[in-house]
Amino acid sequence: MTKPTLSLNFSDIKLINGTELNNSTMRTSISDFIVVYFALAIALLGLVGNGLVLWVLFFRLRKTPFTVYILNLAVADFLLLLISMVVLLCIVCGLWIQIEENLTITGFLLTAVYYAGLLILTAISVERCLSLIFPFWYRCKRPKYQSSLASAIFWVVSILLTCMEYFGCNDEEYRKSDLKCDVIIISISTLILLVFSPAMVLSSLILFIKIWTKTWRRHSSTLYIVILVTVVIFILFTLPPRILSLLMYLDIVHVQNFFVMYTWALFCNVVNSAANPFVYFFVGSMGKQGVGRSIQGVLQKVFKEDSDISQEAAQEIETSEIKM
Questions:
Q1: What is the pTM assigned to this prediction?
Q2: Which CATH number covers residue 259?
Q3: What percent of the chain is modeled with pLDDT above 90?
């Protein structure tokens, strides 16, 4: 039996010593399936929401550096929800054996889109922070196709990281805790927990502080609230599973029921991917200008600030330099 590689974030947690999935690790209860049904309902809503975002961004809004990132993030979320929904339907229909047989395939795809979403969200946070700190660079020196090029690179890197994680060590090397496996898994976990996530959080915090203290009265904070809420949801629903998966790999925490771990991991990732379009809509509906607007109007209110805010920041710095 090949090692199952679906983890709490679809990458790290594998059954130890080749334990069969039909033994005690697969005991289920009604409460376990309640999580599955909730995840299925949320996945369906998320597919509809991300589908609407994709439609509006593709056909109704002018492309900006920010909307290109959001478009790629919506694609990653849509794919993750679609694959998750297939897995959840198999569970509901009692077709777990089919999932087991294709665990590497589904796990690979889910992990790849998870990494893509992580990288894109990090880029959104960092770049929006830089647009306020260095507004002239953002408006005048920033390469025109940077968002498109960066997004393409993120997808390639995501696939490479997933290949490394899934095919970097075989079953025997994993069971023996081979040094190569340790290096791969710990290195990728370090990138996520100590590089990408802190960069995302720190840039979002700087973004919030700068807007609150410098330009709060100058323009709406809708765009920044969207970024902050999206980052908070990502941290709350994806980092704890990742940390737990690493602890399980290091044998600090032990898996007693693989099915429960699997479904809760799926649930957390589904919630994270489904939440984004609803964040855009509800935050964009805040205030008098958002009340009664169509979905297109609400999204336009959020995303049009991409150029407006950077222009205001640049003008503000230019005015201060003239005065000096």
A1: 0.84
A2: 1.20.1070.10
A3: 32
